[in-house]
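Follow-up to my earlier ticket, as requested here are the two runs.
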Amino acid sequence: MATGIELGAAVRAWRERITPAEAGLPAGGDRRVPGLRREELALLVGISVDYLVRLEQGRATNPSPQVLGALARALRLPPGERELLYRLAGAVPPPSGSVPRAVPRGVQLMIDRMSDTPLAVFTAAWDTVQWNPLWAALLGDPAALDARARNLIWRYFTAEQATGSRVERDALHADAFEREMVADLRRAADRYPDDRAVRELTAALREANPRFADLWRRYEAAPNSPSRKTVVHPDLGPITLDCDVLTLDGSDLRIVLYSAEPGTRDAELLERLRHRSTVRARR
């Protein structure tokens, strides 16, 4: 069975990758490979060595959720590889705990180099966790908002519908945006059922906004897609930009960035805004 063979190959690769010290075991004597021996992994997982051999050879199919969970813990698998383990076994990955908020170091380095692009990082529930100065100059500084208002979905369905937004949307684009946001929040709620903040946010939105409550009851799945948005800046006026959303595998974070077509008036306005934000930051 192809799935069993792939599962076995993955388990063996992960076993040979992790060191005894990483697994909480003494290094012991000489080793032909730096990873765990089958006997050590079997002990950590609570299965027989014979079963582990059959699993790695693709002869043991349909391991129980308990065995898969123990394997993931013993092998110290990060979220993405943990999900892969379950999928290779033909099982549904169990929900995780809380919505991740930490920005990986490699991603942070990439963000720091993109100072010419309005950019912000959001959680799976659309809480703003990071932004650069150009984002703040274009769309307003999230630092001026309280914790709840830094959630994009809450801000849109409550404050922005009452006071207005810098982003212009006609009825068609507003409908698509609302469906995408509600679908994203439902995915976050399903994926992280133990996250109290997500439950409280969802309950508050259902109470505060009938439109959100209606969309929540529809159980729709609306994928994010690239779009063009017009941002009405209080000093520079309308700036039309491409908006892209990048999802980071493993951390479940989203990077939202805006860009302008080179050589256009919008690119010129964005450059002026960048220059102004740079001068302000140096003062």
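Run two:
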Amino acid sequence: MIQKIYEDNATGKISDERFSTMSMAYEEEQKSLKEEISDMQAYLETETDKSESLQRFIDKIKQITQPTKLTAELVHEFIEKIVIHEPGHLDGKRYQLMDIYYNGVGVIRGLTPEEMEEAFQKHLAKRKINKVKTT
């Protein structure tokens, strides 16, 4: 645009005064646009950093809420202590109780050996029923 008004001024289509006014206006606009580009690039970099930080946070939360393996970080974050009791025998089967003390929650009672066996038998029965339904 600046080149066009220069040519128009050179050929006499616009006056020197008009050329000067238009040229100054275009120069200010160009300067303003360059500053906006700089500001937008800084904003984009900040938003990209925020996005990457958010993604790292989401990944960390997924590891905690959907753990695929027990890590030291997960244990230290959520478990205060684990108490392993003496092994015992029931109906010829060995069992061993443990208490897990969670941070901020305390111990959540685990199942007794009898309750574990009962829950396991219910699970097997439920699987059998579901298998019959699908065939």
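The only thing I checked on run two: The chain has a mean pLDDT of 81. Let me know what else you need.
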